[in-house]
Amino acid sequence: SLPGYNYEVYHSLEEIEDWMHYLNTTYSDLVYMFSVGKSYEGRPLYVLKLGKRSRPYKKAVWIDCGIHAREWIGPAFCQWFVKEALQTYQTDPDMRKMLTQLYFYIMPVFNVDGYHFSWTNDRFWRKTRSKNMRFHCHGVDANRNWKVKWCDEGASLHPCDDTYCGPFPESEPEVKAVAHFLRKHRKQIKAYLSFHAYAQMLLYPYSYKYATIPNFNCVESAAYNAVNALQSAYGVRYRYGPASSTLYVSSGSSMDWAYKNGIPYAFAFELRDTGHFGFLLPEMLIKPTCTETMLAVKNITLHLLKKC
Amino acid sequence: STLGAFLEHDKLIRVVPESERETQILRAAFNRLKVDLWQPSSPFHIVEGAFADVRVPQNATRSLLPFLQQANIQYTILISDLQQAIENQTAGRSHRSRR
User: Fold this and answer.
1) Is A255 exposed, middle or buried, given 0-12, 13-18 or 19+ CB atoms closer than 10 A?
2) Is A270 a catalytic residue?
3) Looking at the partner chain, which of B4, B40, B90 has a beta carbon nearest the beta carbon of A283?
4) Tens digits of residue pLDDT in A24-55
5) A31 forms bridges with which residues in the sheet?
6) Euclidean distance between CA atoms A65 and A58, whole angstroms
7) Which chain B residues are within 8 Å of A249, Cβ to Cβ?
8) Pick among A280, A284, A289 to test the B interface (most B CBs inside 10 A)
9) Measured between beta carbons, which residues in chain A are less than 8 angstroms from residue B96?
10) What ipTM was predicted for this assembly?
11) Distance (Å, rounded) from C-alpha B17 to C-alpha A186?
């Protein structure tokens, strides 16, 4: 892909957008770049559609990274996934099968305004950058703003809190744009994967309540096999299970919304590590983290292609 | 630093509440001090037996850490200088570019 583009370092929003434009031009048979809307500050919300145009109708997988601005390893993984797909499509039978039978919608940076702000102003910024009329705080937690049990347990109504759910569901243009796209394509999209950090977990619904999803056996086995595939790389263990009991209860999350809207496999990855570096995972760990996560994502994708 | 956030001597500490009493003390303290909680995402989610990672600005170090000691709540310092850790995060790059 982009000559000299280094996938083992973190990139600014501008560099990532240049990278997407380059791929769109250079790999037009496998990559199609489009925007699902504009952010609060007016930046385009780019998505890469990845896959061989082998037949008119294909199922799809949605992958987003960077919902929380400070979790830089997320966008690094989205870029890594695209690189691996393009580089191994010809040589890896599994990847060839995946790109022939599926489309992947990859959103490398969901929260573009927040990510840019974490590069230029506050490395530990989490939320979007929308302004609040009554308080002097910015931003909404883009993973508490979805229309599913909105602003219930595990979200805050206070605009200055890190888990502020927003003035109303889908108040954030970024959330509204992606929700609109996923709603429009929900019959095509069979899996929703969202990448966060840090905790080393693979989570599935529900976040907003302690209950078991109807297709628990299929989702649980996919998660079990995925974390085992991940661990096979370097022995790194990921916990897995329903988000509410594995991490904590939270309402208004994208994963719960995707599941509620008919996407049968919805996962949230909490990538490395468990706190030694936290959000400051060094660049030297990008490669092992992304390599092991690739195994998990390929495992989930191939599970999708089989009947469960 | 290009990142603007002046984090000299900001620390990342980890606390693991060992009782309901400690859990309530930490929730109240972190709510009042408006600290930057890294894990979990809000004080509401702090529970007994589970770790909480919190970024403590230099000015709050002098109040929060003694407070934890007085409350007899154990803590460990995960990162003692966040500014340095930010620079270390991309240290490889500068090293690589020098090469």
Assistant:
1) buried
2) yes
3) B90
4) 999 999 999 999 999 999 999 999 999 999 88
5) A50
6) 23
7) 45
8) A280
9) 6, 9
10) 0.92
11) 42
